[in-house]
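Long-time lurker, first post. I've been practising inverse folding by hand and with some scripts of my own, and I keep getting stuck on stretches where the C-alpha coordinates seem ambiguous. Below is the full C-alpha coordinate string for one chain I'm working on. Before anyone asks, I'm not after the true native sequence, just a reasonable design that respects the backbone. If someone could post their per-position residues I'd love to compare against what I wrote down in my notebook.
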Protein backbone atom coordinates (compact mmCIF):
# COMPACT_ATOMS: atom_id res chain seq x y z
CA UNK A 1 0.00 0.00 0.00
CA UNK A 2 1.22 3.52 -0.88
CA UNK A 3 1.60 5.94 2.05
CA UNK A 4 -0.86 8.85 1.83
CA UNK A 5 0.75 11.96 0.43
CA UNK A 6 0.42 15.11 2.50
CA UNK A 7 -1.10 18.24 0.98
CA UNK A 8 2.30 19.85 1.60
CA UNK A 9 4.01 17.31 -0.60
CA UNK A 10 1.42 17.72 -3.33
CA UNK A 11 1.96 21.49 -3.43
CA UNK A 12 5.73 21.44 -3.29
CA UNK A 13 6.54 18.42 -5.43
CA UNK A 14 3.71 18.10 -7.92
CA UNK A 15 3.52 21.70 -9.11
CA UNK A 16 -0.27 21.80 -8.88
CA UNK A 17 -0.14 25.20 -7.23
CA UNK A 18 1.47 28.30 -8.68
CA UNK A 19 4.08 30.16 -6.64
CA UNK A 20 2.89 33.72 -6.21
CA UNK A 21 5.69 34.97 -3.93
CA UNK A 22 9.01 33.19 -3.59
CA UNK A 23 11.00 33.05 -0.36
CA UNK A 24 13.58 35.41 -1.86
CA UNK A 25 10.96 37.97 -2.82
CA UNK A 26 9.36 37.79 0.62
CA UNK A 27 12.69 38.17 2.43
CA UNK A 28 13.65 41.19 0.35
CA UNK A 29 10.38 42.98 1.02
CA UNK A 30 10.56 42.28 4.75
CA UNK A 31 14.01 43.84 4.95
CA UNK A 32 12.51 47.00 3.37
CA UNK A 33 9.53 47.02 5.74
CA UNK A 34 11.79 46.48 8.74
CA UNK A 35 13.96 49.40 7.72
CA UNK A 36 10.97 51.68 7.28
CA UNK A 37 9.42 50.70 10.61
CA UNK A 38 12.78 51.14 12.35
CA UNK A 39 12.98 54.74 11.11
CA UNK A 40 9.33 55.56 11.84
CA UNK A 41 9.38 54.24 15.41
CA UNK A 42 12.83 55.28 16.60
CA UNK A 43 12.66 56.23 20.29
CA UNK A 44 9.05 55.07 20.68
CA UNK A 45 9.39 51.43 21.84
CA UNK A 46 6.22 50.25 20.10
CA UNK A 47 4.09 47.27 21.08
CA UNK A 48 3.80 45.04 18.05
CA UNK A 49 0.63 42.97 18.17
CA UNK A 50 0.32 39.93 15.94
CA UNK A 51 -3.04 38.60 14.82
CA UNK A 52 -3.05 34.84 15.27
CA UNK A 53 -2.84 32.43 13.70
CA UNK A 54 -1.95 33.68 10.25
CA UNK A 55 0.51 36.45 11.13
CA UNK A 56 2.92 34.45 13.26
CA UNK A 57 5.51 33.68 10.58
CA UNK A 58 5.45 37.15 9.02
CA UNK A 59 5.69 38.75 12.45
CA UNK A 60 8.62 36.55 13.47
CA UNK A 61 10.54 37.51 10.34
CA UNK A 62 9.52 41.17 10.44
CA UNK A 63 10.57 41.93 14.01
CA UNK A 64 14.02 40.48 13.33
CA UNK A 65 14.42 43.20 10.69
CA UNK A 66 13.44 45.96 13.11
CA UNK A 67 16.47 47.47 14.81
CA UNK A 68 14.96 49.30 17.79
CA UNK A 69 13.40 48.08 21.06
CA UNK A 70 9.96 46.59 20.55
CA UNK A 71 7.52 44.66 22.73
CA UNK A 72 5.29 41.95 21.32
CA UNK A 73 1.86 40.61 22.12
CA UNK A 74 -0.78 38.56 20.31
CA UNK A 75 -4.50 38.53 19.76
CA UNK A 76 -6.37 35.62 18.26
CA UNK A 77 -9.47 36.17 16.17
CA UNK A 78 -11.41 34.03 13.78
CA UNK A 79 -13.60 35.03 10.87
CA UNK A 80 -13.21 32.28 8.32
CA UNK A 81 -13.74 29.08 10.19
CA UNK A 82 -12.55 26.44 7.79
CA UNK A 83 -14.08 27.77 4.61
CA UNK A 84 -12.39 29.61 1.77
CA UNK A 85 -14.83 32.50 2.10
CA UNK A 86 -15.29 34.79 5.10
CA UNK A 87 -18.15 33.88 7.40
CA UNK A 88 -18.82 37.59 7.81
CA UNK A 89 -18.44 37.38 11.57
CA UNK A 90 -15.39 38.06 13.69
CA UNK A 91 -14.87 36.38 17.04
CA UNK A 92 -12.12 37.10 19.54
CA UNK A 93 -10.57 33.86 20.76
CA UNK A 94 -7.68 35.33 22.78
CA UNK A 95 -7.14 38.91 23.94
CA UNK A 96 -3.85 40.77 24.38
CA UNK A 97 -2.26 41.03 27.81
CA UNK A 98 -0.39 44.31 27.35
CA UNK A 99 -1.67 47.70 28.53
CA UNK A 100 -1.81 49.73 25.33
CA UNK A 101 -3.30 53.01 26.52
CA UNK A 102 -0.83 55.77 25.69
CA UNK A 103 1.46 53.34 23.84
CA UNK A 104 2.49 53.19 20.20
CA UNK A 105 0.78 50.15 18.73
CA UNK A 106 1.57 48.43 15.46
CA UNK A 107 -0.85 45.68 14.51
CA UNK A 108 0.43 42.87 12.30
CA UNK A 109 -1.99 41.08 9.96
CA UNK A 110 -1.29 38.23 7.56
CA UNK A 111 -3.74 39.35 4.91
CA UNK A 112 -6.48 41.91 4.45
CA UNK A 113 -9.20 40.46 2.24
CA UNK A 114 -12.58 42.12 2.88
CA UNK A 115 -11.17 44.14 5.76
CA UNK A 116 -13.81 42.89 8.18
CA UNK A 117 -11.19 41.62 10.63
CA UNK A 118 -9.34 44.93 10.38
CA UNK A 119 -12.57 46.86 11.14
CA UNK A 120 -13.08 44.72 14.22
CA UNK A 121 -9.50 45.21 15.39
CA UNK A 122 -9.60 48.94 14.69
CA UNK A 123 -12.71 49.39 16.82
CA UNK A 124 -11.28 47.35 19.64
CA UNK A 125 -7.84 48.97 19.74
CA UNK A 126 -8.80 52.58 19.05
CA UNK A 127 -11.21 52.41 22.02
CA UNK A 128 -8.20 51.70 24.28
CA UNK A 129 -6.67 55.09 23.37
CA UNK A 130 -3.15 54.18 22.24
CA UNK A 131 -0.76 57.07 21.51
CA UNK A 132 -0.73 55.85 17.92
CA UNK A 133 -2.24 52.92 16.06
CA UNK A 134 -0.87 51.69 12.76
CA UNK A 135 -1.30 48.59 10.65
CA UNK A 136 1.05 46.37 8.74
CA UNK A 137 -0.28 43.57 6.57
CA UNK A 138 1.87 41.04 4.77
CA UNK A 139 -0.71 40.81 1.96
CA UNK A 140 -3.63 42.95 0.79
CA UNK A 141 -6.26 42.07 -1.83
CA UNK A 142 -7.15 45.58 -3.08
CA UNK A 143 -10.04 44.32 -5.23
CA UNK A 144 -11.78 42.74 -2.23
CA UNK A 145 -11.21 45.36 0.45
CA UNK A 146 -14.40 47.01 1.67
CA UNK A 147 -12.98 49.16 4.47
CA UNK A 148 -11.55 52.69 4.44
CA UNK A 149 -9.07 51.95 7.21
CA UNK A 150 -5.61 52.90 6.03
CA UNK A 151 -3.00 50.15 6.04
CA UNK A 152 0.26 51.93 6.80
CA UNK A 153 2.67 49.22 5.66
CA UNK A 154 1.79 46.68 2.97
CA UNK A 155 4.02 43.76 2.06
CA UNK A 156 2.41 42.91 -1.26
CA UNK A 157 -0.81 43.71 -3.07
CA UNK A 158 -2.16 40.52 -4.61
CA UNK A 159 -5.11 39.52 -6.83
CA UNK A 160 -8.29 38.31 -5.14
CA UNK A 161 -7.42 34.64 -5.19
CA UNK A 162 -7.07 32.21 -2.33
CA UNK A 163 -3.45 31.87 -1.26
CA UNK A 164 -1.67 29.56 1.16
CA UNK A 165 1.73 29.35 2.79
CA UNK A 166 3.97 31.58 4.89
CA UNK A 167 1.43 31.47 7.73
CA UNK A 168 -1.72 31.41 5.60
CA UNK A 169 -3.79 28.27 5.83
CA UNK A 170 -6.39 26.25 4.06
CA UNK A 171 -8.38 24.30 6.65
CA UNK A 172 -5.57 24.88 9.16
CA UNK A 173 -2.84 23.24 7.07
CA UNK A 174 -0.19 24.51 4.62
CA UNK A 175 0.89 27.37 6.91
CA UNK A 176 4.39 25.86 6.92
CA UNK A 177 4.97 26.32 3.19
CA UNK A 178 7.94 28.72 2.98
CA UNK A 179 6.55 30.58 -0.06
CA UNK A 180 3.07 31.85 -0.99
CA UNK A 181 1.09 29.76 -3.45
CA UNK A 182 -2.18 30.38 -5.29
CA UNK A 183 -4.68 27.64 -4.56
CA UNK A 184 -6.93 27.02 -7.57
P1 LIG B 1 -10.96 39.67 6.07
O1 LIG B 1 -11.61 39.88 7.41
O2 LIG B 1 -11.97 39.34 5.00
O3 LIG B 1 -10.08 40.82 5.66
O4 LIG B 1 -10.10 38.37 6.16
C1 LIG B 1 -9.08 38.29 7.03
C2 LIG B 1 -8.67 36.90 7.37
O5 LIG B 1 -9.17 35.90 6.47
C3 LIG B 1 -7.17 36.80 7.29
O6 LIG B 1 -6.56 37.22 8.48
C4 LIG B 1 -6.96 35.33 6.94
O7 LIG B 1 -6.89 34.56 8.12
C5 LIG B 1 -8.18 34.94 6.14
N1 LIG B 1 -7.91 34.97 4.68
C6 LIG B 1 -8.32 35.89 3.77
N2 LIG B 1 -7.89 35.61 2.53
C7 LIG B 1 -7.16 34.48 2.65
C8 LIG B 1 -6.41 33.68 1.70
O8 LIG B 1 -6.31 33.95 0.49
N3 LIG B 1 -5.78 32.59 2.22
C9 LIG B 1 -5.83 32.24 3.55
N4 LIG B 1 -6.50 32.96 4.45
C10 LIG B 1 -7.17 34.06 4.01
MG1 LIG C 1 -7.05 31.97 8.41
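-- Answer (accepted) --
I ran through it position by position. Result:
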Amino acid sequence: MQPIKSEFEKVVYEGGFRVLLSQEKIDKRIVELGRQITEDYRGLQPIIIGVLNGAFIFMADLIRRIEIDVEVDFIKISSYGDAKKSSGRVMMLKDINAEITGRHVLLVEDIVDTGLSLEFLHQKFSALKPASLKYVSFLVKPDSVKTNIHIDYVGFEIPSEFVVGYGLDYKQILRNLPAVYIMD
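A couple of notes from the structure itself: The radius of gyration is 17 Å. The chain has four helices and nine strands. Happy to go over any region you disagree with.
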